[in-house]
Amino acid sequence: MSTTILWLRQDLRLTDNPALEAACHSKRLVPVYIHDPALNDRWPPGAASKWWLHHSLSALDRDLRHAGSRLILRTGPTAEVLGDLVKTCKATRICWNRRYEPSLIDVDRELKAVLQDSGLEVQTFNAGLLFEPWEIRRAAKEQPHAPYKVFTAYWRACSRVGVPGVMHERPDKLPVCSKEILGERLEDLGLLPRIRWDAGLHELWQPGEKGALARLAQFLDDALLDYSGARDRPAVSGTSRLSPHLHFGEIGPRQVFQAVQQREGHVRGSGAVSLETFLRQVGWREFAHHLLFHFPHTDHQPLNTRFNGFPWRHEYSDDLAAWQQGTTGIPLVDAGMRELWHTGWMHNRVRMVVASFLTKNLLIPWQEGAAWFWDTLVDADLANNSLGWQWVAGCGADAAPYFRIFNPVLQGEKFDPEGVYVRRWVPELDSLPSRYIHKPWSAPQSMQVHCTGYPPPVVDLKSSRERALSSYRRR
DNA sequence: TGAAATGTTGGGGCG
DNA sequence: ACGCCCCAACATTTC
């Protein structure tokens, strides 16, 4: 009578789940999720991320029950919980899909050794990435086997290896999970916010595998072919919005890749460009995991050591608060920050603009921005977040050069010309004609008086740009 | 996946 | 008809 434990972590799906596939070859299966609040002390999950996790676990339990199983929830120190579970269900084997955050790799390595020492068979798999972070290395010559630090070179190397297809079908019948195995109630994990600020999240998101597959299907049908043209327009649903689903492993990157590649033969011209552009974005996600694996300090320290003594401002709490609350007086920045607060997500073009504004116009350390995003994004992901912020701040891999400072007025006029996005999130400005919507301070007084409650800019864009340039030049 | 400053060109108004 | 100036439009350089 063999029993296998399936330890679920960031792979909350049944389709294309190699650990699940392996665990199914067993008489009994115990799928478990362990809530361990002490696990990650540097990066405890933020409020938005916990909200998502709650609903994703709920969906996963439902899906497992449809297949004749169920999800066991446990709270406590991971090692103790697993040890206890192994004993009570007399498991002979445990399967999981690997995690890639540096601190979690250490945890998993140690656990694996302990479990193996106790006589358990441990099998681990890759469900979350196209390639293992250690798999893609530079070829011979000058620095053999060094990790890539430039995206295009990295992505070329990935293409040479070739992206593997989906190999694991969704099982429709799972081995039973004995009745005696007890779990906790999802509500008792304390993942939902005490103050119910999550109404806006419910409007937009459907956490869980079903929601992920629906989002992918909708993207493929509605937006993929025009991705190149629409992805930079924040008022339009031109992006996939798969990021939170990918973070929790409700869908795997191989599934996404394969679904897009299957359309490649039937598309030409700008549509073909769109497909490549989108797959490149999946590549950036991959690159982020590659970098954080090889440079594990980059979640809090710049990759480029020349930035170690960078002259960030020190007294900035008022400006930081204005940025967080979306009251900087810069319409596109405020719209983005309010979208984030309301939906747990922000359009990528606007992420670049608000991040450039924080790190360059306000000269506030990128780590402050990363921490705020970590707490408020439903797609908060250590690798992506660290890469993104370092990229904008100019201290990361393949980073934006220091002089690349976004002008939020021009970005708004370029990518939100009618101000549809700004009007949606900053209704105080709705009465302004489009020519002033991104720079209300230059509208005639007779129009500004109708924008009651909207603040003047916290900084002058021109002079703060010049201040940033001189700070960055002396870096 | 930038923006501003600076340089160049060419058409049109006008004496 | 011609030279001159202005300036928009585009190109290049610089940060």
Condensed summary:
This protein has 475 residues and is mainly alpha-helical.
CATH fold-level label of the largest domain: DNA Cyclobutane Dipyrimidine Photolyase, subunit A, domain 3
Order of helices and strands: EHEHEHEHEHHHHHHHHHHHHHHHHH
Q: What kind of sheet is the major sheet? A: 5 strands, parallel
Distance between the termini: 65 Å
Query: In the CATH hierarchy, what is the architecture of the largest domain at level 2?
Result: Orthogonal Bundle
Any idea what the shape is? globular
Report on this model:
The chain has 475 residues and is mainly α. 47% of the residues lie in helices and 6% in strands. The chain folds into 3 domains: 3-127, HUPs (Rossmann fold, 3-Layer(aba) Sandwich), CATH 3.40.50; 128-165 and 209-294, Serine Threonine Protein Phosphatase 5, Tetratricopeptide repeat; 305-473, DNA Cyclobutane Dipyrimidine Photolyase, subunit A, domain 3, CATH 1.10.579. The chain has helices at residues 18-23, 47-66, 78-89, 102-117, 151-161, 199-204, 209-222, 227-230, 243-247, 253-261, 270-294, 317-325, 331-343, 348-361, 366-376, 382-393, 408-415, 420-425, 434-437, 445-448, 461-473; strands at residues 3-8, 28-35, 72-75, 93-97, 121-125. Strand 2, helix 2 (47-66) and strand 3 form a beta-alpha-beta unit. Helix 14 (348-361) packs across helix 16 (382-393). The protein starts with a strand and ends with a helix. It binds a DNA duplex (15 and 15 nucleotides) through helix 14 and helix 21.
